[in-house]
Write a structure and sequence with these properties.
Keywords: Signal. This is Ferric-chelate reductase 1. It comes from Salmo salar. The protein is mostly beta strands and 233 residues long. It folds into two domains: 198 residues, Immunoglobulin-like (Sandwich); 28 residues. Strands 5, 6, 7, 8, 11, 12 and 13 form a seven-stranded antiparallel beta sheet that branches. It has a six-stranded antiparallel beta sheet with strand order 1-9-10-4-3-2, with no helix packed on it. Strand 11 and strand 12 form a beta hairpin.
Length: 233
């Protein structure tokens, strides 16, 4: 059987159902294609990746995530629509936290077991000592595929609120990580590959605003110098 196994599940992590164990392990199979691209980055979805601007459709070593949020609904927060893709013989992960140097992080893990089958976990990271423990957070509409070492997945995280005193319930520091799968489907140590400053996940441009501002400033300086040179000539 081809190792590019495709899986779809729609579930509630905190409830037990056929194929869902108490720690949230999922192994439902379905023939649904998972295809993640950069289309819409900075326009309709917030994208984070390492290396910078890498192509998730085929570039080796590209660890990529995109996030789209629904409109805030107090006090329920927002739903996060997440895409995640990367190379790993174990797992890839997206982390969200109020402060990456204290407290905890929500971690969403897309993984493959020894047979190359896809499975999903939600976890919590201790930001002080980098330890990770499994949780039973509600996650829905999970779709995943494995092809060799390339893992791709999509999922929805409902009712998310940032635990901060900011004006945005959608402001989180984010990180991308990889790790090993142990004993078939256990989650090994987490290795963070990229950490971003706090970003407003509801704003697709929030992680490119600085670069955009710098570009505009440079253009303004060039125009000003041109005017001065014209007047001095």
């Amino acid at each position: 059987m081809d190792r590019g196994l495709l899986f779809v599940v729609s579930m509630v992590m905190g409830c037990l159902a056929p194929g869902v164990s108490g720690n949230g392990h999922l192994s439902f199979a379905n023939n649904t294609e998972v295809h993640i691209t950069r289309t819409g980055c900075g326009l309709i979805k917030l994208c984070v990746e390492t290396p910078e601007q890498c192509d998730p459709t085929g570039e080796t070593g590209c660890l990529f995530a995109s996030i789209v949020t629904t409109a805030p609904s107090s006090p329920n927060g927002v739903d996060l629509l997440v895409e995640l893709v990367g190379d790993s013989s174990g797992y890839i992960a997206l982390g969200l936290t109020a402060n990456e140097t204290e407290g905890t992080s929500m971690v969403f893990i897309c993984a493959q077991n020894r047979n190359g089958s896809f499975f999903f976990r939600s976890a919590q990271r201790n930001n002080l000592n980098n330890t990770i423990s499994l949780t039973q957070r509600i996650v829905k509409n999970i779709t995943g595929s494995v092809n060799g070492t390339v893992i791709q997945c999509k999922f929805r995280v409902p009712a998310v609120n940032a635990p901060t005193r900011t004006s945005h319930v959608t402001t989180f520091a984010t990180f991308l990580a990889v790790g090993n799968v142990t004993n078939g489907m256990g989650i090994g140590d987490i290795n963070i590959r990229l950490t971003n400053k706090p970003l407003n996940l509801a704003d697709p441009t929030s992680n490119v605003a600085t670069a955009g501002s710098s570009a505009l400033t440079s253009q303004a300086v060039i125009v000003l110098l041109s005017v001065l040179m014209y007047r001095l000539s």
